[in-house]
Design brief:
- The structure holds two protein chains of two kinds.
- Chain A has 16 helices and twelve strands.
- Chain A has two domains: 165 residues, Rossmann fold, CATH 3.40.50; 158 residues, 3-Layer(aba) Sandwich (Rossmann fold), CATH 3.40.50.2000.
- By secondary structure, chain A is α/β, with parallel strands linked by helices.
- Chain A has a six-stranded parallel beta sheet, with helices on both faces. A six-stranded parallel beta sheet of chain A has the order 9-8-7-10-11-12, sandwiched between helices.
- Chain B is an alpha/beta fold.
- Chain B folds into two domains: 158 residues, Rossmann fold (3-Layer(aba) Sandwich); 151 residues, 3-Layer(aba) Sandwich (Rossmann fold).
- Helix content of chain B is 38%, strand content 17%.
- Chain B has eleven helices and 14 strands.
- In chain B, helix 5 crosses helix 9.
- Classes of the chains: A alpha/beta, B alpha/beta.
């Protein structure tokens, strides 16, 4: 089997390009892979498209998907930003309105008009999760690979009837780095872009209160602040200048070293676009206990490895309690985290990818063969297509995922 | 408790899995339960037949029979564990190995065609569902437990099955090596014949029948083993007990066997077992120079191992006795206690 592989890759600086850099060597152990250059076409028996929410990284991939349907890896369930970039970003207002109408009917079209006319704020900034705009991608997909039950359920709710494969996000092998400690104890680390949707304001509030019982605690923030998000001011405002260490972009090796040096990793966000967190996966690899938001994929992490906090009115209180719980149980939770990372072993993930691609290529033929044999046998004994017995047959096939 | 033990049936074929299911049913009844054996024919080819036969198990309604509820079903070998029941336990004999470790080998079934590749994956998917929904997943050996973990990510508890009840005894340590097995290629009887060809004085008795018999008999004739290699065919319980009681030791080295009753039977007769490093299940109990000999799967090594046993009755006796002590710890009381836990 030869796979035509579409994904952002270096120098694109994104989680999905890191993901593909990790996955590709393992995938090539099993199958031949032709990786498409940005904007170009790859050749293979089956096409595999990594689709995320960034129009710069993924717009060309969706264009290729339009030319040749194939298996889609849905890294984000919410693709509003991608669709807006591929339509409004290219002066294609009607395209955006069509996407909105498809998701939310006439009301969606009217809201889209409001956005175009500047009457309401851009929906991809204020309410993207209400309008995921993933319909076209799902229409073009012959099958969908997801990383969470959360996304799987939503894909089904959207009416996607094709095969969906739940494949874990691959984990990086433990790196050979020396931990870089920043001093203080315990040290809580947060990694990635610093912005409100990563709950940084709530994180700072909670950390400030956590320090009342843990005065030596330190908070390490690694990642650039979003435009308009004055992180330094917020840190000073909370009176945390001496307790918070912040780095903007760091290279991969330093990222691992810094993460290896913390006691707990906080990986918070709300709303979720249905994404999986590369930061959280790295933390598991290092055996670091997690504090996460109780949303999407994060909710599916086991309690043994991750304390979950709902992004509601009590979020700050719950974050403080979570920090206390995790720091008190960090050895056991760290062991559970390391254990969990084995399920994300990249070789296993590659095998699951191959399974999905093989089923994508031959699955219809298998189903048709089984159905033909069953229907012939059923007809021979007088069981009609609309009978209860036929329904029972269908249910049994569903149950065992045929 | 009303319990149904589920086991597939390949018509005209009978081996360890069938004996195991029958025995489990019997042992449950002996302990006061109302147990019965449910079987269905199993054919795994051509094409997707393996799936339609699995589906037959799914369609069987075993939640109640004749108006009375069934409290528990126990699935054993693929595809019997596809059966649906709110209280399902699986005591796994083996999965459909052609879809897993045998794929791509001469013992495999699936080609490289798109349909065959997808068919194989459908079996993986089916297994994850059917085994994952079991209240308790047991495995008959560490080898089977390791495989199911590797294949599905599911952890299974090892519950070793005791050997069949024969008139186990030790009468003597005569100068022949016994093989007890179905005669098919995976059992590697040809290795024993080649070993006998290298040792001009070795006598072997091969009990069992199967599709490879004609080829093996031809091989024996080509190697000039007439008279030294006896094909006893399928023997009755009494004759089998006699063979165990009088042999010097037992050869048992299938390729990556699930479990293997034969070592336990040999041990019950206080006889050591010769096996190979790649035999799988037997390695749970055959320990080199403790309960037998563990060698590389080569005829010259096997010839040397058998010759050692034939020349050293004392060691054969010591290792056989050690095997007996080990086999006696594997009991039906334990099996039933775990499966009903």
């Amino acid at each position: 089997m030869k796979v035509a592989y579409y994904s952002p890759l270096a120098p694109d600086r994104s989680g999905i390009s890191d993901y593909s850099a990790l996955l590709l060597p393992a995938l090539r152990e099993h199958v031949e892979v032709d990786v498409a250059r940005k904007g170009a076409r790859a050749r293979g028996d089956v096409a595999l498209y990594h689709v995320g929410n960034n129009p710069e990284s993924h717009g060309w991939i969706v264009e290729q998907l339009r030319r040749e349907p194939g298996v889609v890896v849905l890294h984000d369930y919410v693709l509003h930003h991608l669709v807006a970039g591929m339509t409004l970003g290219r002066k294609d207002g009607p395209g955006y309105l069509s996407a909105m109408e498809r998701d939310a009917g006439v009301a969606g079209r009217l809201l889209g008009l409001g956005v175009i006319d500047g009457c309401i704020p851009p929906l991809w900034e204020v309410r993207p999760e209400d309008f995921p705009l993933c319909g076209e991608v799902l229409d073009l997909a012959t099958g969908v690979i997801v990383h969470s039950r959360f996304v799987e359920e939503r894909v089904r709710e959207k009416g996607f009837a094709g095969p969906v494969w739940h494949v874990p996000h691959p984990a990086w092998p433990p790196p050979d780095v020396s931990p870089e400690r920043i001093g203080g104890a315990p040290v809580i680390g947060a990694f990635g872009n610093m912005n409100p949707s990563k709950r940084v304001p709530q994180l700072l509030d909670a950390f400030e209160r956590f320090r009342e019982s843990q005065p030596d605690a330190k908070l390490l923030l690694v990642g650039a602040a979003a435009p308009g998000f004055d992180l330094a001011w917020r840190i000073g405002h909370e009176g945390l200048a001496d307790a918070v260490v912040q780095h903007d972009y760091v290279d991969e090796e330093r990222l691992w070293a810094l993460m290896a040096g913390v006691d707990v990793v906080a990986s918070l966000r709300s709303p979720t676009m249905g994404e999986t967190s590369g930061t959280a996966i790295r933390a598991l690899t290092l055996g670091k206990p997690l504090v996460v938001s109780d949303v999407g994929w994060f909710s599916e992490l086991p309690d043994a490895a991750a304390a979950k906090v709902r992004p509601d009115d009590r979020e700050v209180d719950e974050l403080v309690a979570a920090f206390e719980h995790v720091t008190a149980n960090r050895d056991a939770m760290g062991t559970a985290a390391a254990e969990l990372s084995r399920a994300h072993d990249v070789a296993r993930v590659a095998d699951l990818y191959v399974a999905a691609l093989e089923e994508s290529l031959g699955g219809d033929a298998v189903r048709e063969t089984v159905l033909r044999e069953l229907s012939e046998s059923a007809a021979e004994v007088g069981i009609g297509a609309a009978s209860d017995e036929a329904a029972a047959l269908g249910q049994a096939m569903d149950e065992i995922q045929l | 408790m009303r319990i149904l033990v589920c086991s597939p049936q390949v018509p005209f074929a009978r081996g360890g899995a069938e004996i195991l299911a029958e025995r489990l049913t019997h042992e449950l009844n002996v302990r006061g339960h109302d147990a019965d054996l449910v079987t269905m024919p199993f054919k795994w080819y051509p094409g997707a037949k393996v799936l339609t036969h699995a589906l037959m198990w799914r369609l069987a309604d075993l939640t109640e029979v004749d108006g009375r509820p069934v409290d528990l079903v126990i699935g054993t070998k693929f595809p019997s564990y596809v059966v649906k029941h709110p209280n399902k336990v699986v005591w796994l004999v083996h999965q459909f190995r052609q879809a897993y470790e045998l794929d791509g080998t001469e013992l495999g079934q699936f080609s490289e065609s798109e349909e065959d590749r997808a068919l194989r994956r459908s079996i993986h998917r089916l297994d994850r569902v059917a085994l994952g929904e079991a209240r308790l997943l047991g495995a008959i050996s560490q080898n089977v437990a390791d495989r199911v973990l590797r294949n599905t990510g599911l952890e299974a508890e090892v519950i070793l099955p005791p050997p069949q009840q024969l008139d186990f005894r030790c009468d003597s340590y005569d100068d022949f090596v016994l093989s007890v097995n179905r005669l098919d290629r995976a059992k590697r009887i040809d290795l024993l014949l080649e070993a006998a060809a290298q040792d001009g004085a070795m006598r072997i008795v091969i009990a069992g029948d199967g599709p490879d018999r004609e080829r093996l008999e031809e091989l024996a004739a080509q190697r000039g083993l007439n008279g030294r290699a006896v094909f006893a065919g399928r023997v009755g319980e009494s004759e089998l007990a006699d063979l165990y009681a009088t042999c010097r030791g037992v050869y048992y080295a299938p390729v990556d066997e699930d479990y293997g009753m034969v070592p336990y039977e040999a041990f019950m007769a206080r006889k050591p077992v010769v096996t190979t490093h790649d035999a799988g299940g037997p390695l749970d109990v055959v320990h080199d120079r403790e309960t037998g000999l563990v060698i590389e799967p080569r005829a010259d090594e096997l010839a040397r191992a058998c010759r050692f046993l034939l020349d050293h009755e004392s060691e054969a006796r010591t290792w056989g006795n050690a095997g007996r002590a080990l086999a006696e710890t594997v009991t039906w009381d334990h099996v039933v206690e775990r499966l009903l836990s």
